[in-house]
Amino acid sequence: MMYGQYLSQYTVRSIFSNGDQSTNGQYLIGDGTTYTNGRDIPTLTSLRMTASEYNFADMSSTHAKTFLAWVKSQLRLGYPVSIGVYAGASYTGYDHIVTVTKVESNYNDNNYYDSDIITIDDHGQSGGTSPSTMPYYFSYTFLGFQGTRSQSRSSSQDYFLPSDYTGTYATGSYGIVYRGLADTNGELYRVRLTSSLNYEPGDMSGSTPPTAATQTLTVTISGLTAGLTYNLYEYTNYNSVPTSGFNAAYASSPSSATRTQFTATGTSQVYSFSRQTSAQAIYRAVASTSG
What is the domain partition of the chain in residue ranges? Predict the structure, then answer.
């Protein structure tokens, strides 16, 4: 949603698993052999996103520190990062995927420091009496975040970044950075979404899509120039989204998207739309004079 597109978790899992959500249906990050069969990057390519994986094969005794420095560097560039963490289970590599929302540091650089603070969003994995009361966010110092498989099973701490480097669970560090949207000609303006819901209802693990709920999506377009005219396109199928020539694509196939044309009154424009959580709501904003 940081890049202007909402898709149900169920839909993303179906793309990852080549249409069969009930078989290996979780969107996983990894090396393309042991864990994901190379499906994470192709899934994001299908969603017209650009991303790159961390080189998980660093097996030195300090690999977790090197990895955290990399995460910090990507956050400082403004990119969201997903990482694998231990959560007290026994899966290969990691137990759960979380999103890093921020890294706080007393130092203005990309280096690792024990005292740096990382905050992760666990997407409600830790549970609660209802989705609205789930903790979601967890913060740890870089030093306190690192732990072994054994520690994750015996500690009351919810999450650890794998620090093992010998033995059965020596699987390195798993991470992926989302760098933006596929935009061949540099036409796109920044679009960001927020939802009135902080969770997606229903069970995502079966072969039948979960019951949908209604949400309000707030669409914020930024980087605009007052007085100029822009087009906001909404696509309801990721396969219909072009990577260049957005205006020309709409002109040749108006049914592929819904267009909202507006003249900017400032540097940003905000719209709200009511959409089902099962829907695909993918937004692209371009100048009305672009290709």
Answer: 5-180, 184-287
